[in-house]
Amino acid sequence: MFGWDLNELLRSVLQYAATNPWQFIYYVLLALSPFFLISAVLAWQLAKQIEHKEKDKKRKAKREANMAKARRHKSD
C-alpha cells in the first residue's frame, strides 16, 4: 500500500539497535517518556480521587451514626 516492507523495516531497526544499543535505548526512552509522564499524572489523580471518596464515606458513616444516636435518644 505505502511501499513499506514490514520485514525490511524490522530488520533495519534491529540492525540499528544491534550496532548502536545505547543510542537506541535513549531514543526508545525519549519516545516513551510522555507516556510515563501521563501515566504518573493519572495515577496521582486516581489516588486523590480514591482518598477523597474514602473521606466522604467516613464522613457519611459518622453522620449516619450520629443521626441514629440522636433518634435513639429522641425515642427514649
Q: Which secondary-structure class do the elements indicate?
A: mainly alpha
Query: Measured on Cα atoms, how large is the radius of gyration?
Result: 28 Å
Number of strands: 0
> How would you characterize the largest beta sheet?
none
Region (Disordered): 51-76
Transmembrane segments: 24-47
Protein name: Small integral membrane protein 15
Main location: membrane
What does this structure look like?
The protein is mainly alpha-helical and 76 residues long. It has one domain. The protein is 91% helix and 0% strand. Helix 1 (6-19) crosses helix 2. It is rod-shaped, with a radius of gyration of 28 Å. The model has no long low-confidence stretch (mean pLDDT 90).
SSE blueprint:
Elements: H1 6-19, H2 21-75
Helix pairs in contact: 1-2
